[in-house]
Amino acid sequence: xxxxxxxxxxxxxxxxxxxxxxxxxxxxxxxxxxxxxxxxxxxxxxxxxxxxxxxxxxxxxxxxxxxxxxxxxxxxxxxxxxxxxxxxxxxxxxxxxxxxxxxxxxxxxxxxxxxxxxxxxxxxxxxxxxxxxxxxxxxxxxxxxxxxxxxxxxxxxxxxxxxxxxxxxxxxxxxxxxxxxxxxxxxxxxxxxxxxxxxxxxxxxxxxxxxxxxxxxxxxxxxxxx
Length: 226
Prior knowledge:
By secondary structure, the protein is of the alpha/beta class. Helix content is 59%, strand content 12%. The protein contains nine helices and five strands. It has a five-stranded mixed beta sheet with strand order 2-1-3-4-5, with helices on both faces. The model is unreliable at 153-157 (pLDDT under 50).
């Protein structure tokens, strides 16, 4: 198991600073005892009620990128206090992180009250997700009833009826193509100039221009021969 060690004290008093060293040493011994690989040992001096901590951001980054899957702490108060503790427990649970503490001499056992709060938070979050999805389905149903055709929109997304034609300098597109820029780079350049265009739109308009030029050249050639 790859783990992160997290040590925290609330002040910069000398006694607290020595506490950081003690936490680090004890957590390292615990990791060695369980044959865990330590990815990083994070130490910080900050209030447990404050969630905007640099150490917490680094800790969560390890877990969200799956660089680690376990957390070692002295006790649950080192992670946080009050609502901050509950919020972090909830986030770590969603990420599938296993938490070990020195106070429990193994995997952390969440108190009954904290467990109940986490269950309520999970239920509320699930219902929020359901309500959000319900709004999307309701909006789509209403749009279909008013004549919107999703399949037609997907198959003809570059030729939607009634869509306003975007104006941009085709001469600039030609010049950039002559300089061997890709349509992606041309679109990015035009957006930088204030023209909200996609790569597909630039490519289509360029093809239209080339086709028109060929037709004009063909007509000119025929007229010249006549």
